[in-house]
Structures are given as C-alpha cells and as structure tokens.
Here is the input.
Amino acid sequence: MFAGLALELSGTLSIVLGAAGIANDTIFRAARYVYRFDLTAWGWIHVVLGIGLIVAGLGVLAGKSWGRPAGIALGAVSLIAQFMFIPYYPLWSISVMTLDLLAIWALSRSGEAGRRAR
Here is the structure.
C-alpha cells in the first residue's frame, strides 16, 4: 500500500512540476551545466511521466499483476528524470527522488515475505 501511495504522490508532484514548466518556461533557472534542456520539453516529460506513475500506483493499489513491474520501471525512469532536473529545482527533485526510491524499494521487497513463508 505504501508503494502505491508513494507512486501516486510522486506522479502528482511530477504533473505539478510539469505544468509549471509548460505554463511558464522561464520559472526555473539553472547554472551552466553539461546537460541543458528546453523547460517546455521538460514540462511535457514530467507530465507524461506523472500520468504513468499515477496509473502504476493505481495498479499497485488495486493489486494488478502489471502494477509492480510498471511501478518499478516508471519509478526508475522518474528517478533518472528527477536527477537530470536537479540543476533547475534541487529541493523538489531530491524530494521526489526520495519518494521514487522508497517506492522502488517497497515494490521490489513486497514479494519477499511471501517467499519466506513457503
């Protein structure tokens, strides 16, 4: 249940971040970094990723078989995207990265208790 809620929250925060980037692409400033992207493109990436995270979180909460692998995969992609966004908004990115890491950890460990019981 925790992993599903963490994915839902991470997805919601990604959508909010993406909407801010799309609506006003001058809202974030970054120093000179090696990787630099257009903020409108970043906004759309975060919106699409956020929708995917919310769908995966709903799958996990509903107990669907595709929920766990989708949650792990989308959490990993979100983790990378947030890492790449650190120069623009570090505190937000690190907070969402923490949620993604906890969700990935919970999803990858959730089958462990069942295997030990057998």
